Amino acid sequence: MDKHVQLSNYIKSNHGAVGKVIDVNASSDRLFHFNFTRENNGLDADIFLNTPKFGSWISETLEANNCRYGVGGYMEHRTIYARSPLFDAGEEPRRLHLGVDLWGGAGTPVYSSLDGKIHSFNDNNNFGDYGPTIILEHSLKGLQLFTLYGHLSRHSLEGLETGRPVKMNQYIGQLGADTENGHWPPHLHFQLMFDLEGYWGDYPGVCRFSEKDKYQQNIPDPQLLLRFPKAVND
């Protein structure tokens, strides 16, 4: 059976086995859907190339729309990766986002969405990279799944051990400030993978558009686990 179908079936049959990633109250919290494609005329290079300006733009947009968090990005072709040489190696730049971003304040608690164990962790300390990253491994009735939590605080990595069990809804860290999270406005990059392909404490979160089909086979939509209410648009 296709792994995407297996995962969907598991979630439908084991609704109580899926927890939260951040604290979201479906009845009161509004989520803003950010659009980081070239179609967003309100976000230009003058903003996203400057980390403080970018952070202010995120915060002001959330406040103006009365939203606690921002969300979005799965398989979104983004312009904002022009801010880092990390995404421009080779003839074709990497611009296709593979996870979901959850934009909020530094220090926002982050939780494991499923029972599992710590697979690996690392401080991917490059400009534009994940910064502190935790990858968890889960066994869902024979289906292996990995969840990646990027752009955390450095404090989130303290005292971790590979193989340590983690329970659903267990606190695992917090959103890092821009000075420690790869120099981004505070947010969580949340991503699912069936196969880590040998990576340790890291896995691509952005790919070339020509590689979309390849990565989409390995990376299901995180909304399957997040189950967020519909986000609002400006």
Structural description of this entry:
- It is a single chain.
- The chain has a single domain, classed as Glucose Permease (Domain IIA) (Distorted Sandwich), CATH 2.70.70.10.
- It contains five helices and 13 strands.
- It is of the alpha+beta class and about 230 residues long.
- It has an eight-stranded mixed beta sheet with strand order 1-2-5-12-9-8-7-10.
SSE inventory with pairings:
Blueprint: H1 3-13, E1 31-33, H2 45-48, H3 51-64, E2 69-72, E3 76-77, E4 96-97, E5 100-103, E6 109-111, E7 116-124, E8 131-140, E9 143-150, E10 165-166, E11 171-174, E12 187-193, E13 206-207, H4 212-218, H5 223-226
Parallel strand pairs: 1-2
Antiparallel strand pairs: 2-5, 3-4, 4-13, 5-12, 6-11, 7-8, 7-10, 8-9, 9-12
Write a brief structural summary.
The protein is α+β, with helices and mostly antiparallel strands and 234 residues long. It has five helices and 13 strands.
Evaluate the radius of gyration. 17 Å
The fraction of residues in strands falls at: 25-35%
Major beta sheet summary: 8 strands, mixed
**What is the CATH third-level topology name?**
Glucose Permease (Domain IIA)
**Would you tell me the structural class of the helices and strands?**
alpha+beta
Pattern of helices and strands: HEHHEEEEEEEEEEEEHH
Mean pLDDT: 94
Distance separating the two termini: 40 Å
| Share of residues in helices | 10-25%
CATH superfamily: Glucose Permease (Domain IIA)
Low-pLDDT sequence parts: none
**Number of helical runs?**
5
> How many domains comprise the coordinates?
1
Give the number of DSSP strands.
13
CATH structural architecture: Distorted Sandwich
Overall spatial form: globular
